[in-house]
Design brief:
heterodimer, A: 75% helix, elongated, B: 183 residues, alpha/beta, five-stranded mixed beta sheet
């Protein structure tokens, strides 16, 4: 309740004060209107007495002050007019106002007249200002003094004896304006600091807050300095900065030091900072240990970074000023001095320094490495980082070089980069790894040596390696998939045209992904397999110029590697994927002319089919893939080919559902007829297959009849089309009578099942018959075979 | 005028990291009315990306696609059929074998995949299209590794087939025009 009561009290106090102020102002104006200077001044004095109060907080005092300020403006206007008219001289006024009873009103009036005095130019500006700034010393109460000096600053603003202004004195007066402002600033700062020690010790926080409200009054002076024409680089370097810093350091007040350093950096041009870097930085260690130097230092570095980017002409200045060296040692010193700085603070500093370095010296990789090395030093000896602020900063630290350099190889070359990553805990490593991969994909970078690949995989080990179970389980499935898919995509960016190096890369990648455990293999093995297959094709294309022997040895090594890699999928287990990959390898071996290797892969595929595939749908797809692959192979000798085709047909006939069996078996017919020049063209075996398929189709039909359902006419129509296919290709075993029989059979089926026939079957049959007609009419060699078919 | 995109055999991430950047620039959402995808994407990410280009996505599953929910063949209006798996069209790149399928399904336009081998030709009054691989992925059946996709512009019975191919970093467009027989 007490704070509320106090606040209410204050409101009342302010209201009262305002009331009295306005009251006196009214009378003052009346006196001014009737040219009664004496009375006017009396009322003015009374009005200004309100500002003598001690019971208002700065915030409220300000309101009172503003009101008084407005009134004083009108008084000033009156003075100006009267002195111009000649009713009074300025010096007279100057004397008169000093008769005010209390010092505070006296000084306000004196400042007001002083303004008029300066405008009249009857005395040198510098003298008037000096007088005023010294007299203000009479008020030592912090709040009142600050506002009074603020008033002085405000009214003198446009009248400073700056170079080129109308108020400039004679020669050698460069310093006058500067002196005045500096002195006012110094006194104001002292008052401001003194506020800290006023009042009971229990109210420290409140005082801190009140002081914050007033800080801009002090800072304004620096702003004024920065606007003066007379403050050029040399003046700043020689006079202004040292004086300001002297005050800042000597006041030994944490709040003031922080605010003022901040102010200096923001108010003066970056160009100046660059040239006075050493002086500025030397102040830092002298500041109070509780000042948050890292924020100020970061601010400085960020501003300088932005300055560097603003124009290219600026960069040489940086080199000249040896900015990096100075900032680097400053950062080091600050960290040494502030032993208790939390690790997130340390890293923030290094992030600012790194941003700076990347902008100014993008080609100095050694600087970047140095900074990373310093970080490593700070991080070592501590446990893995878990503080989220710190981890965010570290991620920023590691991402900055990536974004700047774009090519990750540059980052990989920095010896300290991996060392920093070592200090990350697993979760952060994953985040960072994702960023690295994104960078590679976005910039389309190719990593082209095995060593770099090795380093890269070490960096992203959070994604690649299997760690303890608990962490893996926690991970959301969707996220996990995304993670692993990004690793899979990454694998395609690891390539080079040099075959030998490419092989090394593949081995390196394999080494790393095998540490991933069963969950990851299903994602990472396929891209590796296809990378290797691409390499094989590349080798084959080179065959002409390279020594044939060497090539074949490498090919065998690659196939070995492929075999072992796909085998690893059995731990997942992932038989369907493995089957498909084995078939791809078999085809590749076929193209290389390596019969035993190809046979081996097909065997593996068959084994998987036998042992791992129980689901009938899966079986159907798998057997068709096997048949399709086998059909394209031409590397096998008769015995091997026979074994394989026999197996394929056998499994086809053993599929669960009759229609599936039928389709698989007639697909097998293609195994015995290859359309190429030297291809197998075993008409008899083709026919055998087709007949077998037909028998199965009949059996299927009978089964359906017992159930009372129709259908499976489709199968017969498909078979018809197959017969036509082989007829066209010139298989002598296909007779037109067989085709007739088939057509009749189909017709009977369709007609008998009239009520329940499928319109698509009819359509299929019609289009097939149209096809036959078409070829009969067409003429040519095929037409002859078609001739014999009676439709 | 209806625009249909025929695309397939991307094989991301098994055989390729991503669609070529030039294709991504061209494939902007809102311009295409339908997408026929003949499979082998392989992951859901890519499926979502295609869906963002056009919500009417018809997807037929290829042998490397993870998601088993999708069918292996799909029919669509105007007798276009998207169809992914090779069976039972063994031999895989044999045109006459494919022709049987066209007769069986009684379609005017047959879009197939799996072989990554680009084909577009007129056959018995209809059109057979294999849009090749959109990422230029490695395939055991063909050595042609140029990324490709096909855009069909269907105006009643007239069909324009635009083939977009990425050769040496430049996108080249080819065109086939045909009129489908009225039924």
């Amino acid at each position: 309740m007490v704070p509320d009561a106090a606040a209410a009290d204050e409101e009342k106090c302010l209201a009262d004060g305002m009331g009295r102020l306005q009251h006196n102002a009214f009378y003052m104006h009346r006196a001014l209107d009737s040219n009664n200077l004496k009375d006017a001044l009396r009322y003015a004095g009374q009005m200004l007495s309100e500002l003598r109060t001690s019971s208002l907080s700065p915030h409220k005092y300000y309101e009172l002050y503003m009101r008084a300020f407005d009134e004083l403006r009108k008084v000033e206007m009156f003075f100006v007019e009267e002195t111009r008219r000649g009713s009074y001289s300025v010096t007279d006024l100057y004397e008169l106002v000093q008769h005010a009873a209390n010092i505070l009103p006296r000084l306000y009036l004196l400042c007001t007249v002083g303004s008029v005095y300066i405008k009249s130019k009857e005395a040198p500006t510098k003298d008037v200002l000096k007088d005023l700034v010294e007299m203000c010393r009479g008020i030592q109460h912090p709040v009142r003094g600050l506002f009074l000096r603020s008033y002085l600053s405000q009214i003198s603003r446009d009248k400073l004896p700056d170079i080129g202004s109308e108020f400039e004195g004679g020669a050698n007066t460069d310093n006058d304006a500067i002196e005045f402002v500096l002195q006012n600033f110094t006194e104001m700062n002292k008052l401001w600091v003194r506020m800290q020690y006023q009042g009971p010790t229990g109210e420290k926080a409140k005082r801190g807050k009140e002081r914050s409200e007033l800080r801009d009054l002090v800072g304004k002076n620096l702003h004024v300095l920065s606007q003066l024409e007379g403050v050029d680089l040399d003046m700043y370097k020689e006079t202004v900065l040292p004086r300001i810093l002297e005050q800042v350091v000597n006041c030994k007040d944490e709040l003031a030091q922080h605010y003022l350093m901040d102010c200096i950096i923001q108010v003066f041009p970056d160009e100046y900072h660059l040239q006075t870097l050493e002086t500025l930085l030397s102040a830092f260690p002298q500041l109070q240990p509780t000042v948050d130097i890292k924020m100020v230092l970061s601010l400085l570095m960020d501003r300088l970074s932005n300055y560097a980017v603003s124009s290219t002409e600026v960069l040489p200045e940086f080199l000249q000023a040896e900015a990096f060296a100075k900032l680097n040692s400053a950062v080091g010193e600050v960290i040494e001095a502030q032993v208790d700085m939390p690790i997130s603070g340390v890293i923030t500093l290094y992030v600012s320094l790194l941003t700076f370095t990347l902008r100014i010296h993008p080609d100095r990789l050694d600087y970047t490495d140095q900074i990373l090395g310093a970080c490593v030093q700070r991080l070592s000896g501590k446990t893995k980082l878990e503080d989220s602020k710190a981890t965010k900063q570290i991620i920023a630290l590691l991402s900055a070089p990536l974004e700047k350099y774009k090519d990750i190889s540059t980052a990989l070359n920095l010896p300290n980069y991996p060392r920093v990553m070592d200090h990350l805990d697993n979760a952060t490593n994953k985040v960072m790894s994702a960023i690295i991969i994104q960078n590679i994909m976005k910039n389309n970078t190719c990593i082209s040596t095995a060593d770099k690949v090795d380093t890269l995989f070490e960096l992203i080990k959070g994604l690649v390696k299997e760690t303890d179970e608990a962490q893996d389980d926690e991970l959301d499935e969707e996220d996990f998939k995304e993670e692993q898919n990004s690793v899979a995509r990454l694998i395609h960016m690891l390539r080079t045209d040099d075959a030998e190096e490419m092989f090394k890369i593949i081995c390196t990648v394999r080494k790393h992904i095998l540490l991933g455990g069963p969950k990851r293999l299903a994602f990472t093995v396929p891209p590796l397999v296809f990378s290797a297959l691409k390499l094989l094709r590349h080798l084959r294309n080179q065959d002409g110029d390279v020594n044939g022997q060497e090539v074949s040895v490498t090919q065998k090594k690659i196939f070995q590697l492929l075999h072992q890699t796909i085998e690893a999928l059995s731990s997942v287990p992932s038989p369907e994927l493995a089957l498909r990959l084995y078939l791809q390898c078999a085809e590749a071996a076929n193209d290389c002319g390596l019969e035993p290797v190809s046979y081996e892969f097909l065997t593996q595929a068959f084994i998987l089919y036998e042992e791992e595939m129980a689901d009938s749908k899966v079986q159907v797809t798998a057997i068709h893939l096997i048949i399709g692959t086998l059909q394209r192979m031409n590397v096998f000798g008769i015995e091997n080919r026979d074994t394989l085709t026999h197996k394929a047909t056998g499994y086809s006939a053993k599929l669960l559902k009759k229609p599936d069996q039928c389709r698989a078996v007639y697909a097998c017919s293609h195994l015995f007829w290859v359309n190429e020049q030297d291809g197998v063209k075993d008409g008899e075996r083709v026919l055998l297959c087709l007949k077998r398929a037909l028998r199965i189709a009949n059996a299927a039909q009978q089964m359906n009849a017992t159930r009372g359902s129709s259908g499976h006419v489709t199968l017969f129509i498909e078979m018809l089309n197959k017969y036509l296919y082989f007829l066209e290709k010139g298989n002598p075993q296909i007779t037109s009578s067989a085709i007739h029989d088939l057509i009749d059979h189909i017709r009977t089926e369709i007609q008998s099942d009239n009520t329940t026939s499928d319109p698509s079957d009819n359509a299929f049959f019609s289009s097939t018959m149209r096809y036959i007609e078409f070829h009969k009419q067409k003429g040519g060699s095929i037409s002859e075979s078609y001739e014999q078919i009676k439709v | 005028m209806v625009l249909v995109l025929a695309i397939g055999d991307l094989h991301i991430p098994h055989r390729a990291p991503d669609l070529p950047a030039k294709f991504k620039q061209m494939l902007v959402p809102g311009k295409i009315q339908h997408i026929l995808c003949v499979g082998n994407l392989c992951i859901e990410d890519v499926h979502d990306y295609l869906k963002s280009l056009c919500p009417d996505l018809h997807f037929a599953r290829g042998e490397y696609d993870e998601d088993a929910r999708y069918p292996e063949r799909k029919t669509h209006d105007w007798s276009i059929q998207a169809w992914a798996l090779p069976w039972p069209s063994v031999p895989w790149s044999d045109l006459d074998s494919l022709a049987m399928f066209q007769r069986q399904l009684d379609v005017d336009i047959l879009v197939t995949g799996h072989t990554s081998q680009f084909k577009a030709y007129k056959h018995e009054g209809g059109v057979v299209i294999n849009p090749g691989s959109a990422t230029g992925a490695h395939s055991s059946i063909t050595y042609d590794a140029n990324p490709r996709f096909v855009l069909l512009d269907i105006d009643d019975l007239r069909v324009w087939v635009y083939i977009y191919e990425l050769i040496d970093g430049q996108v080249k467009v080819d065109k086939i025009a045909t009129t489908l027989p009225a039924h």
